[in-house]
Amino acid sequence: MRIIERCLICNIINNYPICKKCTVNPFEVEKCRQILAQIGNLKTLKEMYISSMAEIETLNTPAFWNKKLDKIFYFKDQDGMTKERIKIAFGFIPKDAKRILDVGAGYGFIEEFLSAYKNIEIFGNDISDNAVNNLKKRFKGNFRVESIYQMSYPKSFFDVVIMLEILEHVPPSKIFNILGKIRKFLKKDGAVIISVPTNEGLDKMTDNPNRHARMYTDYLIKSELEISGFKVIQLKSIYAFKNLYKLKKTIAIFLRNRWLPNDIIVLAKPL
Q1: Into how many domains does the chain fold?
Q2: For residue 132, what is the domain's CATH number?
Q3: Looking at the whole model, is its pTM more than 0.85?
Q4: Which residues are within 8 A (CB) of 100 and not within 5 positions of it... i.e. 6 or more apart?
Q5: Are residues 102 and 179 in the same domain?
Q6: Rg of the chain taking only CA atoms, in angstroms
Q7: Most exposed among 14, 114, 146, 174, judged by the fewest C-beta atoms under 10 Å?
Q8: CA dihedral (74, 77, 82, 83) positive or negative
Q9: Residues 13, 66: one domain?
Q10: Residues 31 and 152 placed together within one structural domain of the fold
Q11: Any idea what the Cα angle at residue 151 is, between residues 49 and 74, rounded to 5°?
Q12: Nearest-CA neighbor of 72 among 95, 47, 105?
């Protein structure tokens, strides 16, 4: 029996996985990637990351992030989800890690935890020179102004690379290049810790306040890591409750269909 291949978005026949009409809409392209990841078709998924596919406009600039990161903020003053994300990410760091890179270090929330350990050598970068100046004032480490696309570190240099809320700013056509770089920077037994937002409704927004260029699901981030030569060790999802965070977090464990998660934290290792 002949299987009729259809567009995964609009169901037009003979247009698998996506038709030309849908490829001009970056949000439909993202949804197609999500479906391919969920059904485990990694071969076709990888082919969906070419630059000819429509991409969500990339609006990340040093000027934007300098304005956003011009002040110092502390972990203790953050919302429940941010605190949970940092605590989980820190908990994922192997106990014997000596050299850690924080990509897009921003306000330095993870550095507040890392700086308590004298045996850890901290490296960090950010597109914002305001962020890097503040990091240098607050922490002992190797911080530099650097775009994720121009990162340059020795091969097999780091025990851990941390990328919290970073990949959603990277256009799809550049994702595998970035993850490939990270893999080269890591030691053979190293680890990468990544977080990305999910279920934020980017396709329904009239603007893009956080300059996101991706729409992630747990299936999609796991698939991208697998394609890039990583094995996912742990994955946790958390919620963006504005109030009663601890109570609602507890309730969410029992009422899994009540709320959709808003952030994903992943621990992965090179294969």
Answers
A1: 2
A2: 3.40.50.150
A3: yes
A4: 93, 114, 120, 121, 122, 123, 158, 159, 160, 161, 162
A5: yes
A6: 19
A7: 14
A8: positive
A9: no
A10: no
A11: 100
A12: 105
List of residues 6+ apart from 5 with CB closer than 8 A: 13, 14, 15, 16
Containing structural domain, residue 169: 60-270
The span from the CA of 174 to the CA of 118, in Å, is: 35
Instruction: Name residue, tokens 């820190």.
Output: 90
Question: What is the Cα–Cα distance from 120 to 149, expressed in whole angstroms?
Answer: 25
Residues 24-32: contacts with CB under 8 Å, at least 24 apart: 24/54, 25/54, 26/53, 26/54, 26/55, 26/56, 26/57, 27/56, 27/202, 27/203, 27/215, 29/53, 29/54, 29/55, 29/172, 30/56, 30/172, 30/203, 30/214, 30/215, 31/203, 31/215, 32/8
What is the three-class DSSP state of 238?
strand
| Token pair 């993870």: residue | 110
Structure token digits, residue 150:
């121009």
In this structure, the answer to whether residues 115 and 244 fall within a common structural domain is yes
Give the type of residue at 29.
Answer: V
Mean pLDDT, each 10-residue run in order, the chain (271 residues): 82 94 96 98 96 91 96 96 97 97 98 96 98 98 97 97 98 97 98 97 93 98 98 96 76 76 97 95
Q: Is 59 exposed, middle or buried (0-12, 13-18, 19+ CB in 10 A)?
A: middle
Tally Cβ neighbours within 10 Å of residue 72.
13
Query: Does residue 158 contact residue 190 with C-beta atoms inside 8 Å?
Result: yes
| Cα distance from N-terminal residue to C-terminal residue, the chain | 38
Same domain, 20 and 114: no
